[in-house]
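User: Hi! I'm a student and our assignment asks us to look at how structure tokens line up with a sequence. Could you show me two examples?

Assistant: Happy to help. In each example below, the sequence comes first and the structure tokens follow. Example one:
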Amino acid sequence: MRKALLAVLVILTTGAALNEVRLKHFDVERDGNAFVIVWETEVEDEVRLFEVFRKSGFDADFVPVGNSNGHGTNLEYRLTDDQVYKTSSDFIDYRLEVVYNNGVRQRLAEKKVNYTSTAIRRSWGSIKAMFQD
């Protein structure tokens, strides 16, 4: 009985250890009216997919932006968020999560970026132009 219990524990521990992701980097870059979420892994075991979420301002919940299937280490992932214009906040939080083949979900990274909508910038530019000589 003890040997069987020990064998089960070893199998469970080994299986859990196979679920691993280590990031090389996680960045959010501005691209015109959108943000591009970029990440790269140095270890990527048993990954089904990566999911990116956005939270703007003081919203209570993160909303899905998109996902990408796992494709291996040392390859860059890029996901574009072109729905940013719908937010009404000075900052946006992005979150990266991984979903493993066994269904386990893990939060990998979060990044906060400053955001001023292009509509606000254009309006401010128009106002300044009216008062310049």
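Example two works the same way, sequence first and then tokens:
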Amino acid sequence: MSQVSLSRREALKLAGAATVGGLVGAMGQPGSTSMVHAQKDPAKPDLVVFVGDFYFEVGDPDGKNRKGKNAGFSIPSGQEYLVHFINEGKVLHEIHMGRKPNIGKRQYDENLFGGGFLGLHLDGGQAGYMHLNLPASQKGDWEVGCFVVGHYDDAKMHAPVKVV
């Protein structure tokens, strides 16, 4: 039997593939609160969120017209929506969306996506997409946050998200 060694990046890619596989398998299941689609062109995101050390900032795909660090953003419900996250920082950041932050568990007690999908992990320089179609039942005030130790609580790396 041979031993296989994975780099951290390879392990994160495999974890991401497993998460997406689980989401696709859960689509249409009773109690599902969000849908994931693969039809949207990733070259044309509806929203670009830059993730840095230690902030979230909405801007144009070319990096211009930014709203300001941790200014927040809105996501429409009931329609296909593609969010492109770009980690322009140098360290690993997590992208979680929810309410009622739980620092001890390093996640939100109330997850925007239900219980099956917690968020993205992006190493410095990496980018990722969230392809969403949130139901009207998710309308309201939420938050995006990074729960890497010290980022949420000490560095205040979180921003408001409104589902409209």
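Here is something you could point out in your write-up. Strands lie at 47-52, 55-59, 73-75, 81-87, 93-102, 107-111, 119-122, 127-132, 140-145, 158-163.
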